[in-house]
Records
---
Amino acid sequence: MAAATRTRVAPPMLDWSEDHRGEFARGVVSARHQLARLPLFTDEALAAMLDRHDRDNLDVCTMGRDPAERSSWRDVPVCRHLPGHHLIEAVHQTRLWVHARHALDTDSELKPVFAAMMDQLRHLNPGWAPLRAYGGVVIASPGAQVFLHSDISETMMFQVRGSQQVFVYPPRDPWVSDRALEGVLLGEAGEDLPYDPSWDAEAARIDMERGSFAAWPLHAPHRIRFGNELSVTLVLEVVTQGSLVKNGVLHANGLMRRAGLNPRNADTRGLGAAAKLAISRAAKTASAIRKRREAQPVSDMTLAGALEQA
């Protein structure tokens, strides 16, 4: 019997220089890739991927046209269970943003693409050693947008269809504060941020088209405006030692602040940072234990009764 063959993916990146290496994970970086050549992102292929995908890991949202009107962002749960070809048709005809979370790292057709992306990024950037990485596929309607927000993981994008403009702002006040990030890490707030159009003067604008790659520093706020045709973007979310430590310190600062203390900085080096990491880990462990204790097991009798009623 012939051995099963794995789909081969050519190294995605087409250009990468010393300047790219120096700025990667530190500044705003743009480059070119050749993943758009793969026959995996046609409407038919995307519909088949959506039909295979775990719908619990599918976000479908709509929004208004004003970049300052964050309240117009709404989930559209009814679309989450549409057949793939109907959902793709809805994206063409309305204003939807669809995110198939974990599609790159779980889907049988896309996992080789994910592996090639990660392998080459490691090779091109010596010393870059992700602890964990995930990949999703974003499918967006013509004219859709994503409001200003700050991710808690390191993020990078590969544009494979359509176009988008990404506005990236510095990861500091007034664009994003440590206190805002503390709220996100404590689960008290979402990642969305207030937006002031005057801030665009300080933004790095990345015009992404088919074959474009972009990355930016951890926590850098950004917003997205999609072009005039359906857009497909592969999104990597990466956890490194640096992001793990930074988020741990911010998480601990939030805990301390809510306990009546006033942490003065979010430094990631020294004994203070080590102590804060210990606080963060202990709190997360305690929370996990509490959730397990609060979970109510379903008894055999209850399960049997449920089956009888089915």
---
Amino acid sequence: MGDVMVLAIDCDLEAEVICAPPDVNSLFEFTTPLFSIGGFHFTRTVFLIFAAMAIVLGLLYFGLRRGQLVPSKFELSIESLVGFVRDDIAKGVIGPVHGMRYFPYLLSVFFFLLVGNLFKVTPLVNFPISSRMALSGFLAILTWVIFVFVGFSKNGFKHYFIDALWPKSVPLALRWLVGLIEVVSTFVLRPVTLAVRLFANMVAGHLMLTLLLVSGLLFVAGVGDIGLKAGLGIVWFAFGLAIWVFEFVVAVLQAYIFTLLSAVYIQTSLEPAH
């Protein structure tokens, strides 16, 4: 609702062909907290983060608690998603032995991002929590901490860091360059690209959906003032619905990609290339 109010206030239906706020940040920042406890402000974004956590706990609890021989459709769906993360990501990427050790983390990340990303296409919510860099960055740093810790504990400082910094399999003249690229890629760029990939996709989708759907509603609602120009609203709303279907796929895909790359990074720490 915050998005609609901002666009409605700033939109001149007679002079513009699409409604857009003067500052894109207004689509991602909600300055008025729902309530405050001391110095902590409980904003809409914070509420949605806790809501995503509660939904994930509910899905896993009610989907897995009975373990019936003939599960319901809901239980079968949850079991299928859990089995997919376990078999295709945890075991399939990391391996059958080590994969189960990191399965709880991968499962938690996948379900949390799946629910949080789908908030983007949820009516009356229309806000993916991963469109805030703080959340995407936190999850990326958490993955980074895990795979770096795994790398040092499994291989030791020499084999995990020194061998990457000075790869002996590379010609001597190129070792410093290849080593520098390897270290920067592993210890700096991995968490950055992991966070930015998720964040950027969610930002783009949220922006397109908000502008198209809200513009469509406002132009159609203003037909009495702008006449035939209200037809633009039908066009924008139709585009918005098409983008909605596409963004549903993107939301699921980004949860999968983040979880898959987390598993890949852990696997490469268990068995470094150098």
